[in-house]
Amino acid sequence: MDIPDLAGRGLVLLGCGKMGSALLEGWLAGGLPASAVSALEPNPSPRLEALAREGLRLNDYPPEPPGIAVVAVKPQSMGAALPRLAGYGGGGTLFVSIAAGTPIRALEEAFGAGTPIVRAMPNTPAAIGRGMTALVGNDAAGEEGMRVAETLMAAVGETARLETEAQMDAVTAVSGSGPAYVFLMIEALAAAGEAEGLAPDLALRLARATVAGAARLAEAPDREPSRLRADVTSPGGTTAAALEMLMDEGDGLTPLMRRAVAAAAARSRALAG
Ligand SMILES: NC(=O)c1ccc[n+]([C@@H]2O[C@H](COP(=O)([O-])OP(=O)(O)OC[C@H]3O[C@@H](n4cnc5c(N)ncnc54)[C@H](OP(=O)(O)O)[C@@H]3O)[C@@H](O)[C@H]2O)c1
After folding, report:
1. What is the pLDDT of residues 71-114, one digit of tens each?
2. Residue 186: partners with Cβ closer than 8 Å, 6 or more residues away
3. Cα–ligand 1 centroid distance for 19 (angstroms)
4. What is the Å distance from ligand 1's center to 77 Cα?
């Protein structure tokens, strides 16, 4: 299934902020006509207004119930926003929600039992088409609903299907929040470079290019990160000296990351209530 296959269904996008607009751009680039989309957004960007001149319905409902409704408002806006789509509950419309911390059962309560719902968790690199999205659906969504949702989210990067919704807390903690950990890694590496005498600009440039380049190297599925690491570590060399600190079993990066991800997952569980 490709994006153009979804054109006939009609799509309502509730919330067109950072993530909603990243998705919209991905769908348009993938061949979805602007005229197939209705965007409900209180603060439309100039780009959204330009798209409205090309046929996108802005703050206007489609004449028929849409095949797909994508929920992309903040969790705290849900209470006010979801009633705007309540008329589409109960069967014909597939709901895809990207809201962090809002469980499927909360959406079923809003839209009614038997409503096909897929919950998806993207991350910020979706804005440049390099996102990672995990998805899980209810029984009503079925295989067809999952395929539609995967097609929508694949427009902004990779997708992975979960076995249970309970895994969403760990996903949120790893790939949802993960980009921030990597940004911190760049900041920390640059600060350490400064502490060793580099000018701030140069330290940041080195750190940024190193993380980006290493990430690119690690991307190929046949390149195990542990192998890549071993390949650049000569016994008794400089990398080995640093890794001795970073790989300390008590206070190295692995136990620290374990605690950080556990804290994020616990927070995700608490937000879901
Ligand atoms: N950004 C990420 O990395 C990321 C990753 C995973 C999941 N998510 C999820 O994606 C969702 C959106 O996040 P975001 O970063 O895109 O937030 P955002 O930039 O704040 O976008 C949300 C948009 O929804 C609009 N909105 C608020 N109330 C509305 C209503 N009643 N009807 C229609 N639109 C309404 C907001 O307008 P106002 O500005 O007027 O409030 C805003 O433009 C969140 O639930 C978040 O958990 C985001």
Report:
1. 999 988 998 999 999 999 998 899 999 998 889 999 999 999 89
2. 204, 207, 208, 211
3. 7
4. 8
